[in-house]
Design goal:
The structure is a single chain. This protein has 2 domains: 11-88, Serine Threonine Protein Phosphatase 5, Tetratricopeptide repeat (Alpha Horseshoe); 103-180, no CATH class. It has 10 helices and no strands. The chain is elongated. The longest helix has 20 residues, at 124-143. By secondary structure, the chain is mainly alpha-helical. Helix 4 crosses helix 5, helix 5 (69-81) runs antiparallel to helix 6 (89-101) and helix 6 (89-101) crosses helix 7 (105-120).
Length: 180
């Protein structure tokens, strides 16, 4: 007899077996970006063992090369922190940009934070541009419900003129998610 829809919805997930892991490994070796991301996540978050950030970065890099936004974001974090790769803010910013342009809200929020921080030490014209970009990225992340982005967007808005807020809103409205 067929199970009802709610029995299917609430059925227990079977724990991962060696066959499941092998299937993920096989799929990752075959070029599946989701499987590659899963292996990167596994190596970065080994429970009860030491994380292997170099292996995580290796698998994330393969998935990121196929436009996997979460892998790109994770590579940005790892590069910013020097986990499994040399610490490099320029490389981190590149990965955050790629993920944000694909619509990843965590990457968008991170770019908002970076632009906001950059505005503190810049000349007035550059600071204005950084604040407008910060507002845009916070606004986009807030539109997806990313925690803290709405408040951050409001805080940046308090430092902008009406014209600058309008320009930032125009940039956010013109944003189009990239597929690569």
């Amino acid at each position: 007899m067929d199970k009802s829809w709610f029995q299917k919805l609430f059925r227990r997930q079977q724990p991962a077996t060696e066959d499941t892991t092998q299937t993920t490994q096989t799929r990752a070796d075959g070029g599946d970006p989701e499987a590659q991301f899963s292996l990167g996540l596994k190596y970065a978050n080994l429970n009860g063992g030491a994380q292997d950030y170099e292996q995580a970065a290796r698998w994330y890099l393969k998935a990121a090369g196929q436009s996997h936004a979460l892998a790109q974001f994770n590579l940005g974090v790892m590069s910013a922190n020097g986990q499994g790769m040399p610490q490099d803010d320029a490389v981190a910013l590149n990965w955050f940009n790629k993920a944000a342009r694909q619509g990843d809200p965590a990457a968008q929020h991170t770019l908002g934070m970076r632009h906001q921080r950059a505005s503190f030490g810049e000349l007035s014209v550059q600071a204005r541009e950084s604040k407008i970009e910060a507002f845009k990225w916070f606004h986009l992340a807030a539109g997806q419900g990313y925690h803290g982005s709405l408040g951050a967007c409001a805080a940046v808005a308090l430092t902008l003129t009406r014209e600058e807020v309008a320009a930032a809103n125009d940039r956010a409205s013109a944003f189009v998610v990239s597929t690569s």
